[in-house]
C-alpha cells in the first residue's frame, strides 16, 4: 500500500501561490523551513506520498499574495496505517499503472 497524507482545504480570496510545510519536529513559524511543496494559487488539494506509516508530522500551509505570506495553524497528524491491509489479497491502482501493490 502506498503511504500518503491527503490534504484538502478551502481558502477565501485569491492568492499567488501556496506553500506546504511538513516536518517530524514542530515548525517554528518565525523561522520557516524550506516548503516541502509550492503549489499554484488555485490548488485546493495535495497528496504527500513521502511519509512513513506510524510517524507523527507537523503540518501547516502558507498562502502568498503580493509577496506577503500568511501561515495557517500548525496541525499534528499521525500517518496511521490501514488496519485491514493484511486482509487484502490484491490491490490494483488503475489511476497510475497496473502493478499489484501486494506484490502478487
Explain what this protein looks like in three dimensions.
- The protein is mostly beta strands.
- Strand 5 and strand 6 form a beta hairpin.
- The strands form two sheets. Strands 2, 3, 5, 6 and 7 form a five-stranded antiparallel β-sheet that branches. Strands 1-4 form a two-stranded antiparallel sheet.
- The chain has strands spanning 5-8, 17-23, 37-40, 45-48, 56-65, 68-71, 75-78.
- The mean pLDDT is 83.
- 6% of the residues are buried.
- The protein is built from no helices and seven strands.
Write a short abstract of this structure:
This protein is mainly beta and 104 residues long. The protein has no helices and seven strands. The protein is globular, with a radius of gyration of 16 Å.
| Broad shape | globular
Helix/strand order: EEEEEEE
List segments where confidence is low: pLDDT < 50 over at least 5 consecutive residues. Answer: none
The largest sheet is: 5 strands, antiparallel
Secondary structure: helix percent: under 10%
**Overall average residue pLDDT:** 83
Structural class: mainly beta
Count of helical segments? 0
Number of strands: 7
Measured by DSSP, the beta-strand proportion falls in: 35-45%
Radius of gyration, in Å, reads 16 Å
Distance N to C terminus: 13 Å
Amino acid at each position: 500500500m502506498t503511504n500518503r497524507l491527503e490534504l484538502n482545504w478551502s481558502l477565501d480570496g485569491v492568492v499567488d501561490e501556496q506553500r506546504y510545510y511538513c516536518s517530524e519536529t514542530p515548525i517554528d513559524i518565525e523561522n520557516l523551513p524550506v516548503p516541502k511543496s509550492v503549489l499554484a494559487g488555485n490548488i485546493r488539494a495535495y497528496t504527500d506520498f513521502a511519509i512513513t506509516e506510524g510517524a507523527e508530522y507537523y503540518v501547516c500551509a502558507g498562502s502568498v499574495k503580493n509577496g506577503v505570506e500568511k501561515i495557517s495553524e500548525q496541525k499534528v497528524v499521525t500517518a496511521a496505517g490501514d488496519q485491514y491491509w493484511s486482509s487484502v489479497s490484491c490491490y490494483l491502482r488503475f489511476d497510475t499503472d497496473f502493478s499489484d501493490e501486494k506484490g502478487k
